[in-house]
Amino acid sequence: VCDAYLDPSLKFDKKKIQKNGIDPFKMVFDMVVRDRNFDSLMKHEEDRQYDKKSGGRIGDFHQKLLGGVSGWTDLGVGHDTKVDLKKDDNTVFMELKNKYNTVNSDSLSAVRLKLKKITKDYPGSTAYWAYVIEKNGTSGESEWNYLGDNNPKLKKIWGSKLYELITGKKDALEKTWIALPIAIKDILKDSKMISSVDMKELQEWFKDAFEK
Predict the structure, then answer these.
(1) Taken in order 199, 200, 205, 211, is the CA torsion positive or negative?
(2) At what angle do helices 38-67 and 24-33 cross, to 10 degrees?
């Protein structure tokens, strides 16, 4: 994830942006309505490129971290089940996403078919559609009833409940989040620690994201 923030290839490149399609009409609205000059507009575009790449890595972060928990495996890419995580005794399999809206309805149907096949190939297993961020800021676990198809072996799990299921610790997600600035500082030696004032504000955002 840190590498995504530091990728030199994401520096502002006019030709690259033009190749992907540029909207000069939106540029005018952004500059006039939001009171931006051209340099600040380009800086915003550069930041947007970094956000897109780093945001895409967050899901990988959770997958690798949870796959490193004792008794679990990160299946990476190319496993026969085509999902992300599994318990080593083959009793639990997971398709893991970072946010609830990462997949559209067609993709979600494909995920469900994939999970249903796993429960047939591994009798006695439970298959989860798992994600970290829910839109209403909650954490939970339930049967995944979808378009009238009810199957007790198919479940969904989100927020802190995901980390709790895999680690066996109710506060695992929060402890991971609290440790994150220290871990990043250890990787990026020159980075600054988050101030206590800012951390207090962030704590409120954490509660809003997972504890409503």
Answers:
(1) positive
(2) 100
What is the DSSP code (8-state) at residue 84?
S
Beta strands in 29-125 (DSSP E): 72-74, 85-87, 92-99
Which positions of the chain have pLDDT values less than 70? 9-14, 16-21
Considering the entire predicted model, what is its pTM? Answer: 0.86
Closest CA relative to residue 138, chosen from 180, 82, 100: 100
Label the pairing between strands 126-133 and 85-87. Answer: unpaired
Return the residue matching tokens 């969904």.
156
- Minimal CA–CA distance to 65: which of 81, 91, 84? 84
Alpha-carbon distance of 162 to 91, in angstroms, equals: 15
